Structures are given as structure tokens and as C-alpha cells.
Protein 1
Amino acid sequence: MTRPWSSRLRFRAVAVVVAATACAGGLALPGAAVAAPGAAVTAEAPADVVVPFRADARLVSSGPTGFLSVVGDTHYWTRYADGVETRLPRSGYRASAQSDVLVWNEGTRYFVHDMARGVDAEPVVIDSAYELRGVNGSTLVMRDAADGIHLVDRVPGGDVVDRAVGGLPADTVRRVYSTAPGAVAVQTATVDALKDRLSVVDIATGAVTATYDVHSGTDAVQVSAEYVAWRVGTDVTMVAGRDGGAPVRQSFWGPLVTGGWMAVDNGFALRRIGDRGTVYPLDAARQVVVGSDGAALVYGGTIADGRGLFRISVGADGKAVVKKVADSGERLELVVKSESVPTVVDFDRESRHEMRWEFDHQDVSLTVELTHTATGRRTTLNSWWAPDDFEARVAWDGLSEKYFGAPNGVHTWKMTTESVYGTPVTRTGTLTVVRGPRPRDVTDNGVADVLVRDAAGKLSAYEVSQLEAVGRYFDCHEEGCRPPLRATTPTTLGTGWNTYTLMASPADRTLVGRDRDGVLWQHRSEQGKLLPRTKVGGGWQVYNTIVGGSDLNGDGRGDLLATDASGVLWFYASTGDAGTPFKARKKIGGGWQTYNLLTAPGNVAGASGGDLLARDKDGVLWMYLGKGDGTFTARRQIGGGWQKYTHVVPAGTSSRGVADLFAIGPSGSAMYYGRDSTSTPFGDARKVSVNGDSTTYKSVF
């Protein structure tokens, strides 16, 4: 069935810079032609007619009078003159590069169709027992059983002409390449396993015109009117003149285009051989073949003219000349084909969650901005480079680009693509972050906090994830990596905290403070914000130290410890009741005045209860393992040198549930990661780029 098509669209010349890429052809057979609805068949169309091109088709080859395309296994031949499209009934055929010739075979019979003679013209039939290795114009390039190369022709009604190619090296033929009219390249092996010979054969004379030494790994060869190009592996491109001159290495690869250019990146750019210039004729490109005149024929598009086939060449002035020769009827806009974004993100179940979008274009970069509706805190995620992928994605591990934890609760998200065709694409939605309570996480974002009160009474939460990252260099060479963190940005929890003389965090999302009158107050946090304080009780002026964080009796709740002026250590078990948060105190024992620093980080060495750390006046740190009943085993020495720190505080737990420490002093700070060992409970100090001063870090807990 015939599908004639006419259009008032005209070719537009565009001055730009370009490059070309080589493409292999497939082929098909004459059959039924299909008529486009409402279109009239014209005997002869104007030279500037723009014919149709199926949007879902792949371009195979192009000759002087038409082009071959394929959808799935179905091939179509479209005439340039009037847009008539012929559906070809067969598949698995060969197309002669830069010509109108298509070839198919049944056994040893080869049917050569010259589409310029018309789709119904009888093919030329050639019967040959040789192996077909290429098609050049109407000539079959074949190999015999003895590795000889033959050029086989037949004109309509004439005899078969079989010409043996002379002058080839007497070696095994590896491959035959036919990429341009009038010449083929034959690659032959040598006795050296790493070296091959590449010979250019003139179709008209059957003679070898030039020979090149190439690597045996060569697997792609092109011949144009001016150059011979080949590739070794995926990153070595060699180009030599047709006269057999010395090859030169190039940094790019693509189809050879007339004038000494290559069409690279599927025809998106044309680069001059010798790295002497690049032009970009289109706003998008998907595929390129070389047309009959040696110009690039690119399936791509421009914002002004939409998508279709564009014939591209480069003039003497180094500017690209662009003509649209076929129209797919599509505007050049980025289309989102699918979207996959979770509605619930549970970081307790999975440590990383992906958000994905599929586009009709490869290598789309995008940014996702998430905003926590309750606090306004933002997280920005960037996609990573995927040049051959139609899908763009971001991965979220629960941290922002500034190493903040993602707060629990509802987040709005906005996805924005980079400007692909002039206008970015955006998508929006919501998701909910859920996770259970984490030790020392006051801000409800899955990351332990180090609490700091400054001299003015401002209370801030420093996230451990930020403390670990600040000033460190992360060796990351991919898109989507977080930038280096230059400074911490703590979360302000409130002001007026200088009314308290002692403070501690006995349980998750719970703070206590003792005022100057000896009254103990409790502050609970919900959704990252502190609630109004509640009174615990008076009489706490007898204590000079209070610490919290360890579950000392194994009931799942963090407890409180306090030392009085006489050096007695007291245990306050948590009740879980906000009205009466602690049970009556129990005496643990005396002699604790020998220590000038206590910290209760939780499970340090795998005992049944929470543990306690104490530093003596000589800077030695001691460990007391909890028994699970509010008492401790005999102390064990961890090591000396801890006098350089003014504060040693809990810093959350590892994935194994072992407590970590953050230590800070005037000369610097460090993280100490728990090793779940009674003999060596902590690893070596990992330095943190934060120095503790008595004004900013007046109290740390």
C-alpha cells in the first residue's frame, strides 16, 4: 500500500558546528506501500519537500532517492521525491551504504533491488556459492572457500561478472567493510597475533589502492572519499588518508562525513579530523548514517523544527548547513514516560531509597528538592551521570547534601530536569519519612545529636553526621556526590538555657536541667521541637554531676546518674511516665570524687546493661560495665591522654548497636567508634575539624 505525503515545510539552513558517526545498514524488500490519510499522490514533488518519518522507526541507510527505516522487524522504504513509503515484506537483508540498493537472498540466490528503478521493478538475481561479506552499490563483495575476495556483478539481462581481487595479503580474511560507494576495506590476519593488515580495494578496478598496518583488535573500519578510519577497542581511533599515509590518533569516533569531518555522539556534533573544530547543528540527536552525497543524515531535532531527519554538511566557512528532509511530527520536548517515587520512606528497613524517572531522551540530569513540611528543612539530591540510559535517578540515604538527617514526617518533593530543549521539566509530590527512635536523636531525623550550650544560653544540636564530615575530603568522582562540608550548621533548640547549672540527656528525645534553686526540670521533644518543660522535683542542689543515656536496668529506657559532693554515685531509674519520670534514687557506691568527668553512652562492650565511663585527674579513662541491675563490674582501664578534652559525650550507636563517643577540647575534637570489645572498646581517634572553646562550647552533653 502506498503512503504519499506532501508538506509545505521547507528546508532551513542553520549555521553551526558539527561532527559525524558511522552507522551500519540493515535492509528490506519491496512490498506494499501505505498512503497517509488526506494526502494526495504527486507525480513529482518540489525539491524542498519534507517527507514523513515514523517516530518509532530506526534509520538504516539513505540513498539518492530514498531512505530505509525499520520498526521492530518491519522495514520501510521512503522516497524523497514524494514521500511514498513502501512496506517491505522481508527482513534480514543488507542495505548498500549511501545507495538505493537492497539485497536479500534465498540460499545461494541473491536478489539485488535498485529502489531507484521503482519498488515493483524486477530484482537482478545472482546465483553464487560464495559467502556474502558486503554490498557496495550493486556489487556483491564475497569470499570463496580459499579466503579469496570476489566482486560479483550482474546488469539486468546480462551475465554474472566475477572479478577476483588481486594484491591482497596472502593471509586469513578477518572482516570486510563496505561503508562508502566505490571502495571496500579488507582486514587480514598476519603471523603476528597482535598485527593485522588493512587493504582498501577499488570496486571499479578490483585493485588494492592502499594498505595499512593495524592492531588485531580492530573491529570497525570506515572508508570515505578522503579517509580511512578504524577503531581499536572502545577508546582508540585511527584516521589515515586514502593514499596510504601514516595514521593519526583521534580523540573521537563517528561516521566519516564529506569534507574531513566525523559525526560524533549520534550526530549531535561534527568534529573535523585533526581536532581542528567542532560544530553543533541540532538540539538533539539519536542516530546518524551517511547519505549518498557523503553528508550526515541525522535522526534528531531542533526546538524550532521539531524531530525528523536532517541532512548536515559543513561549508568551507566551517559552519554547518542543515536541511530537514523528513518529519516525524514530534515537537522537540522532553517527555516523562514513567515515574517511580516511594510514598513512604522507611530508613529502618532500607538504608537507601531511589526515585526514578524515565524519559524519551538519554542522559537527562535532574535535581530533586525535598522540603520537610513541619520544619522547612530542605534536602537536595542530584542524579548521577548515565549517558546511555533513558532513566534518571537519585538515591537517598537519609542525609542531605549538608549531611543533615532527614526529619521524620511528610516531605514535599520537586523534581527539575536540566534544560534539555530549552524548557526544564518539573514534577512534584509528597512522601513520608518514618523510622523508630534513635539513641541521642533529639531532632527526630535519624541522626544522633551532640547537645551544646553556649555562654549566652543558646542550646543547639550538632548532628554527628555533620561532625564526622566537616573538613573531610571524600574521594568521589561521580555526579550526585555531596560537596565537601566546610563548617557545621547546628540546629537551635532554644535560648535561656543558662538558667540551668547542670544538664543531661537521660533518654531518647528527653533533656533534664537543674536550675540554681536545685529544681530539676524535664524537656521532651516531638518532631524535632522541644515541648514546654515539666517539673521533676527539688533538692537536686546536692549533686555536682548528672549524666544520662545508659539503660542501666535493662528495661529499654535510658536512666540518670548523679554524684554528690561526698563522691557518692546515685542511680535514678526512668519510669517512662512524663509526670513522674524517675523512681526513687538508689545508692551505687562512694569514691567517685576521684573522677572529674563521667559519661554514660550506653552499650560500650556488649554487657547486659548500659555502661559508664569515668576520667580521673591524671587523664586516664576507665570503663564500668553495667550488670543490668543498676550496678557495675569492677573498673577497667581504657587508656590515658584524655585530659586534653573538656567534654566526652555519647555520639549515638553503630549499626551493631555499640556506643560511639565524641570528645572535644581547646586543641581539637575527635570521634571514637565503639568496637564491642571489653579489652579495646574504642578504635583510634578520628579527628574532627572542630575546636572547643569555653564560650561556644560551654556545656556539651
Protein 2
Amino acid sequence: MDWRVLCTVDEALNRPVFQGAYLIAGQAGTTRPIRWVHILETEQFDSLIHGGEMILTTGIGMQADMLTFLSRLIHSNAACLCVELGPQCPAIPEDAIVMANEQQFPLVVFPHTVRFVDITLDVHSLLLTEQQRKRRELEHITREFHRLTLMPQGSKNVLRLLHESIGRPLVYRPLVGKAIFLPANLAKDHLYWLQIIEEIHCTAAPLSTEQMGVIHAPVHTKEASGQQSTMALPTLAIRPIGALGQTWAHLAFLHHGDDTADELSLLDSAALSIAQELLRSHTLEDRRWSTHQQWLQDLVEGQIRDERQLMGMIGPDYHTLNERPYRIAILEHEAPSSNIRADVSSSLSQFAPSLRHILEQAGYRLWITASPSRVILFISDPQLQHDKERLLQTLSGIMDPKGTTGTTRNTEHNRHTDSFNIRGTTSIRNNTSTRDTTSSITYNEENTSIANPRQRISPNNHLTSFAGMPTSQALPMQIAALIIGVSHVHTGLAAATAAYQEGLQALNLYPCIRQPLLFYEDLGIFQLLPHLNDGHTLQRFIASYLGPLISHDEIKGSELLLTLKVYLDNDGSKQMAARQLFIVRQSLYYRLDKITELLGAEFMQAEHRLSIQVAIRAYQLLYPEKLKLPSRTTSLQQ
């Protein structure tokens, strides 16, 4: 069905009002669509027509130069020219007939006087009748879209009906699962469409349902030489599909610029119908997942000790959960400060569905429980033990979709807390790693049914990658930053309480380490220090190894303890230490000499150095607001 054509030149010429008229040139162009009828009796008509008009004239406006008049009409994309022969135009010049034939532009003559008003009324009535008929068809198709979504394989049937209605190749690209091409043989020829959709999705901000509309993206063509064509390029009309501030899929067809609003309206209606089906599916899934909240909360808090009780609460998933590796992740808002509204920290639970969607999109099985101030995630995956980087990327993307995570918001803290090497102990490493911004595309050559939206994309199905593009969607939280603590990998639900405590410990160390995403295994010595904090043990240990430096700093206002920390964190590199402290090498030498004087020359020996570094970490734990590196501005002011 061609929504662009209401009436062609050939159909109009068959109307009774054209009785006696005859076509003298441009027979090959009689399939041109007519949008309107216009009576033209002036040479200055460039701003009067917009293309697709049937032009009626007595020849007054083309007396001076009919060939130029006809050429300008063709250039303006008029539908045809109908001339009444008479005193103003007794005959059509031969060169005008030749031009009309060459340009396939219909040239019609009336050998007698006719009433242009009758022709205008008749053709306009035909156009309006056709427009009303197509409007009824459009409404019928829209209702059919909604009806199909209530039946099995509703979305697939909606796509088929849309393809039949607009007569254009189209692609449906869910974020998770296989793309569907109609017709199916497009899968091999139009994979570039998927690249365009992927780029649009990765660069566009998350849209609300009200903001979603058709996006027109240029489709570039290549000449045989590999150079990009300079011709006018078509666009890909892309309609995001989703709700609740999340995009779940994209629907697109090739747009040549001559499509009517009806075709784009059908695209929009189909997208809305599919979105409603997906929303119903998500709503049912949300209800099912809401039943997990209580058992997960009770499990991590150690209130369920009877295996039979737990098995009854979890149901068929019990054995899978009990056998697969998992991590417990805990999300909270960063401690509210004076510039954060009080109500923000009480709204964290409303983002639980979005969290679930993002993690499941990354391929994880997830159980979740949420309160206004905290979200607990039970993250399960067979490869969890060996694929920490993927989880790191996913959680980092939740906090910041552009790949910076929260580490850049604490640059000054990270500069002196991101690394900590003690020989013979575990190292705390900066969790900010190079993000592998690889996006995957899969397709379905057999044009099978729409894939399960929960299906994990197999790495074996990757067709191409897009470097430099973020792969995760961030939560719509713009005021209070998130902090996340993640447990070690565990197996067996009996260890869930211990995993929860590990996540809490990592989360609680944020004021000390100042990294918003912390994995328990990266805490190093910080795994032990909180258990020694009985009010005396750590204080005595700190005083034994750092007492002289702390006293000197308090009395003299010096920064010897900070200097020692930076110097040891950089494995004794004076150049790196001076650079991070923003001081000259001579100043660093003076400070190191003073440290040696207060601690003794043996402070760099292995055992002493190990004890001193542990004491510094204990000092960080007890006084997280201290040991801050100066900024360059502060250093220059001093």
C-alpha cells in the first residue's frame, strides 16, 4: 500500500471533466501523484507551488517563453500541465512537446474552453475522498496493531502487518536478543542499519515515554571506489520502543524523504503497540520478582536457617541459586550533604526495576530487594568467578553511562588512595580500568520469532563492535551519587549472610577509600582492620609506628605522615611522590630526612615498612577525612 499516492495523473484524466482532453506528451509520467490542483496564470510562480500540483492554465503566463515556463514547472516537481488552447495559446510548440517527452512530464491540452473550477472541484473531491479512505485504513491498521499484541507472538505479527502496510524494508532491533529483518533476506544486506541504530542508542540520552519520537539518521552509501557518494542520502527513520525511562528496542525503516505523515504515523503506532506488550511483560515480571524481596532480605540478614523453608520460598530456582556462583551487591546513595535534598535518599527503591533491566541486559540472573535507602542485589552467573571485568563495566555504567564512574568525582581522594602495595599482602588497586566499550549485534536470518528479551547475547554471535561507545544505561538519578559495595564470589546460599556482610564492609569503607565502586577482594588489609577496631588495638598500633610523625604534624602543622604515605605508595619513587604532592624534589628530600630522623633509618626495611603501611591504613580507617592530597591550585597559593 502506497500511502504517498492519493490520485495519479492517469486516474484524473479518466474523470468525466477531462472528456475531450488529450495527452500530447509525457505518457511515461502519467503515474505521477497529484497532491492538489492549481490554476496558474503568471510567470512568477516559484513561491506558489510546492510540488505534486496539477497545473491548469490558459497560457497567459507562458506567452513570452513557453519552453522556460515548462522547464520551471518540471524543476518545481509539478505533477502535470493542462493547457486550454485558445487566443492566449493557440498551439503547443514542438520543442515543448520534445522536452515533456524527455522529462516524462505529462502535457495535456483542452481543444475547447473548459471550466477550471469544475475540474478543481472534481479532482479535489477525489483527493479528499481518497484521503478519508486511507485515514480509515490507517485507523483500522492501528486497531489491528493493538489487537495483535493481545495474541501469541503479537510483536512479530505487528511487524509483519507494518511491513505489508508501508511496503518498506524494516528492522526490529531489541537491545537483548536477535534483530528481525523484513523481508528476511535483508539480514545480509542491511547490517549497516544495525550499526546506525546501535550508535543512536549509545549516544542518545535515556528517553521518557512522552519524549520518544522518530529519529532520522543519515544512511551513507559507498561507491565502487570506496569513496562516499555526494548524492542526497536517504535516512533511516528510527523509533525507540520502551517505557519507564528505559529503551527496550528500536524499530526502523528506510526513509527517502517522500514518505507521508501516515507512514511515520504507522511506524509510531506499531512501536507503541509493541511497547505496550513489552510493558505488560515487564509488569508481570516485576510482580513475580516482587515476591523475592522478602526471602532475599531474610536470607542475607540470617533469619532463614531452615533449608526446607528457604526451598519453599524460592521454589524451582532454589537448586540453580544454590549451585551457581553469586555476588551480593549493595547500593546506597552517597551520604547526603547540605546541597542534596532530603527526599532524594528516600527514593532509591523506585529504581529497582531499572537496575534489574540493566543487569539482565548484560546477561546476569538477578534477584533484588529494595528499601528507600538501600538496594540489595543477588547477582548470579556461571562465569562470575572468572569474569569480574564484565560485572565491573556493568556496575560502572549504572553509576555513570559515559565511562567515568564515580572515580572522577573524587579525583583528589583517588590520587592518594588508589594504590597500596605491601610486599606479602594483597594490593588495593584502582577500580578504574579501561572500559571495553564493545557493543554486540546479533541477527536472525531465518526470521524466527522475536527472541526472549531475557536472553543473553552470546559472544559467538557478535558481528561488529563500536569502539568508544558506552554499553550501559545509567539510572535516572541526577542529584545524589551512588556508591556500591560488592562481595566476593560465593557458592551456596548458606554463605549469603557472609556475602552480605562483605558487601556492607566494602560499602562502609567508602569514606576511607573514596571509591564509589568497591569489590571486597580489592580491599586488601582493609578486610582485617575493621575487625580490630575495638577502640584500643588500632590506636596503640598506630601510635607505635606513626606516633612521632603524628605529633610533629600536629605541633608544627607539617605533612610528614601524608608525605610518607605517598612515598611508600609509589614504591619509594621520589619523582612520583614529589609530583603528587606538588612540591619540588628538594622539599621532598627535606621531609624524608625529617621522617628518617623521627622513625629511624630502618623504616624502609621490609618488616618496618609493612607495619608502617598497615598503620597508615589503620589511620585512614579511623580518620578518613585526613591525609588528603593538595590540589594544584592549593599548592600554588601556598
Protein 3
Amino acid sequence: MDYLAGLNPSQRAAVEQTNGPVMIVAGAGSGKTRVITYRVAHLIKQGVDPFQILVLTFTNKAAKEMRNRITAVVGDEARNIWMGTFHSVFAKILRAEAEHIGYPRNFTIYDTDDSKSLLRTILKEMQLDDKLYNANFVYNRISSAKNNLISATEYSSNEQIQADDFSNGRGQLGQIYLTYTQRCYKAGAMDFDDLLFKTNVLFREYPEVLHKYQHKFKYLMVDEYQDTNFSQYLIVRKLAAINENICVVGDDAQSIYAFRGANIQNILNFEKDYPDLRVFKLEQNYRSTQNIVNAANSIIANNKDQLKKNVFSENEQGEKIRVNRAFSDNEEGKIVAEAIAQERALHGGKYLDFAILYRTNAQSRAMEEALRKINIPYKIYGGTSFYQRKEIKDLIAYFRLVFNPSDEEALKRVINYPRRGIGDTTVDRILVAADQQQITLWDVIGNAASYLDGRSAGAVGAFAVLIQGFQVVAKNHSAFDAAMHIAQHSGILKDLYADKSVEGLSRYENIQELLNGIKEFSEREDIAEKGLDVFMQDVALLTNDDNDKDPNADTVSLMTIHSSKGLEFPNVFIVGLEENLFPSQLSLNSRSELEEERRLFYVAVTRAEKKLFLSYATSRYRWGTLNNCEPSRFLDELDPKYLELDFRAKPAPQPGSTFEGERTAWQQRDVFTKPKPKIAPKTTSILPKAHTPTPGFAPSDTSNLQVGMEVEHERFGFGKVLNLEGGKGEVKATIFFKELGQKQLLLKFAKLRIVG
């Protein structure tokens, strides 16, 4: 029994309880994987046939790691365990039982791209508006229905669902779902969601098949149970119905995938399903310092829907959590980059020891640019570098074409995006004409009537006029005004806005973030030339090395918080802690949504081992308008004794300040039909807010500005002039601002009001 010697008492008790229903509530960093693997190994050591053990995970990586660990304890017998992801295990069962539900054993499994391609074909055949019935949106709607075990027939006959679709102008969704289902069946194919949906159908319609697998799998273990959806929940419950030797492992405080259909109630209500349940709580955190663990506890305590546990750490006390304030997202990026450089200079270590976590992919832009400026290598984890994302490259291709119509790659990229009736055949004719005449593609396009005929010539000619119009705008307007005009009139914004899927929303946010970056560039006070062409030069320098990175290099990791789950780093930066960003504005409609955002923050905090840095900006651009930002309510919910407010000018503590968050009870929203109740606004923060200019603020003539004068800046607030240097027209002022500290501004752009 030596293999159990390294377990703490709680872990060992969970491992040794092999019979009956068991729930292991595993706090962050509590050794969950060790407990699962040793429990399976213990079953085998006790004489259980590995073929009778089913272990379900959410990732292939987790399954592989567990199998390797079990092999280290019990040897090659580990190969006989039924272990894998829900989809891989039940795909195997469906192939064995396919004839029961009318599928061939070698049925095809459609990936997401296959499914969306089929949906586009169906939408085209039905002559539906592909903006209103965007393939991504339709795919996600069908996926959500399947995960809630709503068939195409049930979807079309459900009055509430139909009323919801018709009210949104999408009354044909039911017919699309039905046609899609029929086409998949005819092709002998299942999509990813069918692997679970059809398993439920199989077990429901053929009880003898269910009976077979109920007796085959005498022991079930489910990892990350808090992430299961209704379809997965039902399969697991049916399989465990006879023996009830079921063990689920998870942490309700880390349930963050409701947008994928995960239902936290599965773990919260597990005891109702099994009244004789044994519950084991793994509460010792081996990952993080005491300070980080205690701060995380103070956050999650604000959630009402949770399984109570007392997570603790016996590691060192550790440093307090540093909270940084920036006046903009660009300055936030600079603060983070400089902090990483300083930490390495003072304490050594690798770049791999650092991670920057953000709520949305769009936030990576400011971080990437700041890291590059001081030559800190980084890698986007589970994603694409900001300027390499398709939607960003699409819009930048328009910018490139405006300044260089001979740019063939940019031209081919956008000539028919968004679609404007210029198909591949027309593009091929343009290429042939350019090659035969030894001229550029743009020369052909600019004289389309001479080389093309009919409707093709008209569509191509209209595109040429569009680009020529963009050239005029770019020549006579600022970078931001030109970029916004191109984004709107090219049709890119409209195309992305029409896609209401999670992916579509992310792409739309990325375009918004690019425009935000251009707006900040347009308002920089240290440069004179602010055209879109100058911005494009900066972008070219930033993107030049995107494809030259060594995948095994020592780099800082950048990722969304969702992508960080299951990972850990010595130093973690969580950025963008502002209301309507984190928590997301989309999450403020119900208690359940807000509590999921809070769990997401908890997950982010508990990724940190040694040091944690939090930051927020007091202002951000949104579609070219500078908006003041409030610090996130989550900052107020952190117990202040674990924080260090690392501001250049720290606010004095306010007696009687509270850190209580949202506590209003709301009914949980149904996935399809229930209306969203409004949630109460954030409580007052003790953290400082953005500067509000004096009423009637107007810049002064600064030609006679002197050292020692008091001034006001529209964004930076009030300050004192410390130094003036430079010749006429290029004078730089060094000013100490009360809220932000010392800054250097070029006077001709600074827009200062002299106070006295």
C-alpha cells in the first residue's frame, strides 16, 4: 500500500472509499488528478477488472496524463481501462451499436468546419439571408438544442422556442435544423454533438443496450463534473443506475463554461440524486501562497450558489497582491511589461514563469505591443497573435490596398470580402488578363470594362470605385477617421455584427479593439504625423516577426482566463479589471451569469503560485470615443488586507469602506426562452476613478508656461510643471500629476489648462 503513503488524510479517505456514490470536491491546487489516478489504481489493486472501470474526462491531455500515472502504479493493466473524453468513449460505443439507430459502423464524424459547410449549403438552397442566418449562429443554436436533448422535431413543435425565433426574425431555424439532421443521416454522418445526443437516444430506445453497458461498467469516475451539460449528466446517471459505484470529481467554484452548455446545478444537486452520497473535500491548496489562497476565498464567498469548503494553504505567507491602475489600456500594457522586466532583473527566472490573463481576446493587442517595445518574447496560448487574426488581417488588407493598389495579396484577400458578387472565376479572369498584358491586377480592375464583360465588369468596377473613395478619405482625414470609414463602408463591420455566435462576438470585439488602437494613435501627443499610412508602418514593424517564433522558446504566456483553466504559473497578471469588461457587460443580466463571472475571476486568481498582479484602466476607447471606466466590483470584493494598492499616488483608506459585491437574488435564466432580469449596479468602489475635467474645460496658451505652474490635463487630471526642455515648437514639459505621477508631454499637443 506504499503508493498511498504520499496522500494527505482527505485525499486518502477519498481514494479508499471505492463503493457507492462519492463526490470529491477538489479545491484549486488540491491534488485532484493525483486522487483520481490513485483511486483508479487502488480499485485495480483491490481486484477490480480494469475493463469494468470507466473514467470520463474533458480533454485527451487529461486522459493521457491519468493513464500514464496509473500505469506507473499498476503496470500495463492500465491499458485496459475505458478512459477518455466523453466524445471519444461514446463514439466507440456508438460504432459498436450503430445498427440499432440506423447508422453504419463506419459513420463519419463531422468536425465543426464540416458542419458549418453543410449549413451554408442548406442556407443557400433555402435562399435565406446569410447575415440573418449566419452559419456560426445557426450551428451554435443547433448545438445548444442537442446538448439540451431537444431534437429537430421537438424544436419545431415547441411553442416557446418558435415564438422566440420568430420574434428575432429567424422563424426558419426549425426547418434548417430538420434539414441539417436529415442530410447528416443520409450521409451516414454524426456531428460532434450527435455523439452525446445519439448515445442518449440509443440508451432511451434500446434498454437492452443500456443494460449491457450498465453491467459492463461497474465503476464510473467523472472528472471536472461541474462542466457537464444536461446530455452528459443523463448518460452518466443512466450508466450508474444499477451499481451506483459512481465517483464525480470537481469544483463548483471553477464552473466557467455555461456558454458551452455546462450546468453547475449538476454538481450542486448531486446529493439529491444520491441521498446516501459520501462527500470528500480536498481543501489543502499545494499550489499558491497563503495570501493568494485567502484572497481567492474572499472572492468566492460572495457567491450564494456553492458547495461550502474551507480552502487553505500551508505554503509560505507570500507577498500581497499588487493592484495597479493605468489611465489607458496602452499604459496598462506598459505597466505589465515593465513589471515583468523588473521581476526578472531582481529575481531571475524564465519568461515561462509569467502569464498575462485577460477576459477577451481583443485585450491582447495592448499587451503584445507593450511587450514587443521592450523586447520581451511572448506566445499567445490557445489563440492567435492579435495582428494575425483573420478579421484583423482582412481590415488591414483594405488599409494596405488604399496605399498600394498593386498589393496583389491584399487585393485577392478582400476583392470579394464581404461578398460582392466577384467569384473565383472572375478573379481568375483578372489574373489571366494581368498576366497576358503584363500589367498589375489593379490596372485590370481599374479598367474592368475593357477586360471583363456583363455583370462581372460592373461588380469589379464598383470595387475599384470603392477603393478609390477610400484613398481620398485616407489622404484627407486622420488615421482613425479613415479607418472607421473603411471598416464601415467596406461592409466588414456589418458582416461581423450579423454573427451573434460567441466566435462572431469575439471577432467583432477584435475589430473594435483595432480601431481603438488607431484612435489612441491618432491622439498621441508626441508625434506630428498621424495618418493611417504612418500607423500602417508601425503595424508592419509589430507583425514582422509573428511567424518566426520558436514554439519551445522561453516566452511569456498570454491567454484568456478560460484558456488558463488547469494551468499554473509562478507570476500571474490579470488585466482589464473594469466594470462591463470583467465582469462582462453581457453577464450582468442575472445572478447566475454574474456568479459565473466571479468564478472565472476565482479561476484566474488561483492560477498564481507566488505572485499575483491585478490591473485596470481608468479609460478605454470604444468605437473611437474615450470612456471613463470604473474598477471592477471584484476588486472591491477582495479582502483589502491581502492587497497592496501600487499607485503612484495612493488614495487614503476610507473608514467604514465595504467590499461587499452583488447579493440580489435572481431566477436562473433558461437556455432558450426565459427573459433576462436586470441586476443591481456595482457597489461604490474605494478605488480611484478616472479624472473628470473641470466644467467648461478649455486648453490655455502654453507659450509662456513656466516651471512650478499648476495645470490641468483633460485625462490625467491636475499636476505641477517640474521641467521644460526643447526648442521653439518642440518644447517638452515634465509634469507630476497627482493621480498618475510623472509624465512628459509635447506642449504643442498636450492641451493643458493653466490653473495658476
